[in-house]
Amino acid sequence: MIRSTLTAALIALGLTTGTPVAGAVTDEERKKTCDKAEKRYQKLFGKPSAEEDVTIVKMYKYTFCPASVEVKQGATVRWVNVDRRTTHSTWFKEAGKPESDRLFSEEKVEMTFDLPAGVYPYLCGPHWKEDGMIGQVTVTE
Description:
single chain, alpha/beta, four-stranded mixed β-sheet, 3 helices, globular, disordered N terminus
């Protein structure tokens, strides 16, 4: 399901024709990576990401964890880089939003979704093409 959702997001962005992306991972590999990302988050911030007052997406090993989130209109999503040495960004390219600053380890960026209900794909500016680092936010009413 995640793989098909990510492929659909890439197609929506006009970034692929459905062929596998270099660096694309299996669902099992993604789960392992995201489990490690959560452990790193807890080590850095002292609590599970689910206990935060906003939706958290961790950036780790060229992966958004989770790759897909669903939020209500007006909710905030916070992307947190929990990698040790790699910078990441968020870029809602299809929506015409500028790319965020590059986030170093432990840095974050937030976006409040005061947008119409819909699916909003995004990518990591430096890592989407070679590493398949993409995600999506679904906004509901």
